[in-house]
């Protein structure tokens, strides 16, 4: 069914309200957020078709920038065009941006946040359980019993685990393989996306670099324009720039910035606002966030009409399906990478396993309640209260 010919079963206000809530309470980074969108908008509310969701996932994987934000922007575009894409993108990112600003202010005022790591310890472990269940549901729904799909999924997941990043060539290659096997070849028109690159590079080249704000704008525009793989891949790029190249932050400050991004809801890439705040206060935070998210916004809405127009063609549909399968595999691999870094001891493993079992057993269990309980448990464990009682 063509979504363009149907009256949307929801209003733009309802959609923006949903993404405002997801941006406020959606923890877990890209794997959890894209799984939540699929569960809420495709399966439960049936506002978005499976085809439109897959097209959005494919486009988000093909373009650089934060995966969850790009998918949200595309889903806003499906029935409400550029207006919907703009409002959804803004409302999705705004809550975490404001939270990060508050944490940045507290971090500067109180010379660091000693309690942050304790809270992150508990929340991070619970989030592993949440994204594990979300990825499981997304995987079984996307692939089903397709042997080729499981093969491409496994290759993508293993590659992500080994390299700790999403490989664009592998994602596109999976689309090509699935396309060649499932449907006849189709020549894709990429004039719009190709035309946008010279414009973006000319703008970036023209930006003066004689002030900190302009340096921030140039650096984070590059991060938003040329880094693939969402939150997982952008962290090494940010580290190389803000710590090694420019020396804006110390090693510890950078680690704290990543922790802030993980303990706040919404896209993990919002850590750029925290970094910008530490470097140049409120103006720095605004510049860093705008420079990072503007390219991904443009690189989502510019190709979107072509996805909407040609997305139902069998050849392109097979290509999109292959890309989506590889994307889900990369998300599954990212869960393993995150778990390896987060589950550092037995209590953390127990918290993650408990969260997974509870979510599997109780389908309507509140994820926010789990996260709150895990945060309190993390504080208790790291403060030594449990040890004192024992």
From TrEMBL:
Q: How does it sit in the membrane?
A: Multi-pass membrane protein
Pfam short name (any one): Chromate_transp
Q: Name one GO cellular component term.
A: plasma membrane
User: Does Transmembrane helix count among this protein's keywords?
Assistant: yes
Q: Where in the cell is it found?
A: Cell membrane
Molecular functions per Gene Ontology:
chromate transmembrane transporter activity
The record's annotation in InterPro entries points to:
Chr_Tranpt_l_chain, CHR_Transporter, Chromate_transpt
- Keywords from the UniProt entry: Cell membrane, Membrane, Transmembrane, Transmembrane helix
Instruction: Report the transmembrane regions from the record.
Output: 18-38, 58-80, 87-108, 114-136, 148-181, 216-242, 254-276, 282-306, 318-338, 344-362, 369-389
Which family does the record claim for this protein?
Answer: Belongs to the chromate ion transporter (CHR) (TC 2.A.51) family.
Write down what this protein is called. Chromate transporter
- Native organism: Larkinella punicea
Q: What is the lineage of its organism?
A: Bacteria, Pseudomonadati, Bacteroidota, Cytophagia, Cytophagales
